[in-house]
């Protein structure tokens, strides 16, 4: 079954450390937890016959930690581990540059360790390469909480050609905010909030919310997309997105986990479908735009701001479907009673 | 955050920068021979905090009279941001009788009981002190907090871990602030620290740990505000690690030959970056930049003049006010 399959690995050393540890009981995922997750991923990749792993380089200790484990006798069966030769900038560019280098290297699949913010950086940088995500961020509506060993199996089975890509991948939706010369994409949500602060990034103040645009809305999500999930669920494969207007005084109420451990009661004034390809203007005159939960852009009445939903995000490897696809031949042909 | 808050933070950063820059000039002006740290009007080693202003200003903006700070051997920015009198502090640095410790402490030993400010040349030893202050605040039933400031290298000291443990066990109103300037003297963090972020270490003690990555005073302000509010409310300790920038050497006279990123430090200077951000917001004008700088120049010049014109301690007073 062996071939020259190569899987790229991207891990964000900065995720899980923002202010939501204090204001919202956000969980901590330590650097050592991340290294451990990658080691589990490597076991899954090794089991499926992946020969090479090309990992992002970082100065946050993850690459160094993974290399340290790979050098041990207990990891001799791992795929050959190489690191992207990249200049470390301590900025989001590190992730983007790593993804582009993996695309240039022709990897068969990419696995990303991070949250919504890390995955968002891959928009436009991974082309048609299937991307599997392992959740280590805070809110994480986009990456599922799959066990890294199993993600390694799924990515490995896909990379080695054991399962059909068409059956277990789909193109993610994106939202793009346009404000003058600035254009920012999102994978989950774009929110319009009051005020002018962008320093600490995260959005956790429910009262500041004015309007939310969603790619998808799952009822079991945490974060801004949970608002839509409670009101009008929209799946990741549904062509439409969702637009929600909020007003603290509205009698229509919804109670949602706006961040881990932070439950808020919101007033809702409108919930409408957001059709793909249609550019819509936001409602507010001034404020701040958050992109996948991170406050990113101030705007004023001088600049028209619009939002567009498109189907042009990364190609997502659906891990449950991939594993189901891989399981079918065994269960249907052998018919063994494993509970006997 | 209002316009006045932002202007005040900018002003405080400029004031601190002017102080550190002028002390650097003064320190070297008469250091002859240059290798003799005992020579000149400012005796002893000198550790300046230029580039680290966002940490001090963003944290201290939330402190009120009666709150406490313990600072490390690089203390000037936190002292000035915490209302320590610039004249008395400068006189102490010059070893004059009008200084905070009557000229017997020097720049690494600034003690100001009035403002609950202290610092120490012994790495990480301010942390247990802050826990003690926090325990006192707690037992007195006040909502005061203690802030323990240390560098990233100090987070490998036993006192750091003992302090986090005790603060968590006793739910103390203390905020541990780590200034990660990438260098413990000449040792890079990855050569000394298991784990890339000391914010991770908070998890081991069951307290929130946050890392502020961008040396951005407003990001520090938000994180520190949340941690300080939490401590005042009785919800216990927090840890904030701030990725900051050491613009100068570890000590004055440090050639920094060990530092490969030295040529990029000026472009990472947080003060011009914040000025540009405030100008873009329409909060700060060119005229205000000039007048804020002029005010800082005048205040610092006056403090240095005050120190230089103050008397030196008399030899017969050498054993007064010291433990022996």
Textual characterization of the structure:
Chain A is an alpha/beta fold and 340 residues long. Chain A has two domains: 6-171 and 313-333, Rossmann fold; 174-310, Tumour Suppressor Smad4. Chain A contains nine helices and 18 strands. A seven-stranded mixed beta sheet of chain A has the order 3-2-1-4-5-18-6, with helices on both faces. A seven-stranded antiparallel beta sheet of chain A has the order 12-13-11-10-9-15-16. In chain A, strands 8-7-17-14 form a four-stranded antiparallel beta sheet, with no helix packed on it. Mean pLDDT of chain A is 89; it is low at 331-340. Chain B is α/β, with parallel strands linked by helices. Chain B has a single domain, classed as Thiamin diphosphate (ThDP)-binding fold, Pyr/PP domains (Rossmann fold), CATH 3.40.50. Chain B is built from ten helices and eight strands. At the A-B interface, α1 of A face α7, β7, α8 and β8 of B.
Concise description?
The complex is a heterodimer of chains A (340) and B (324). Chain A has 340 residues and is α/β, with parallel strands linked by helices.
Overall average residue pLDDT of chain A: 89
**Structural domain count of chain A:** 2
Seen as an oligomer or otherwise, the chain set is: heterodimer
CATH class of chain B: Alpha Beta
**In which range does the helix fraction of chain B lie?**
40-55%
Strand and helix order of chain A: EHHEHEHEHEHHEEEEEHEEEEEEEEH
What's the main sheet of chain B like? 6 strands, parallel
Series of secondary-structure elements of chain B, N-terminal to C-terminal: HHEHHEHEHEEEHEHEHH
- The separation of the N and C termini of chain A measures 30 Å
User: What is the CATH superfamily of the largest domain in chain A?
Assistant: Probable inorganic polyphosphate/atp-NAD kinase, domain 1
Strand content of chain A: 25-35%
Largest interface: A-B, 26 and 28 residues
How many structural domains of chain B?
1
In terms of DSSP E residues, the strand content of chain B is 5-15%
Count of DSSP-assigned helices of chain B: 10
Indicate the CATH class of the largest domain in chain A.
Answer: Alpha Beta
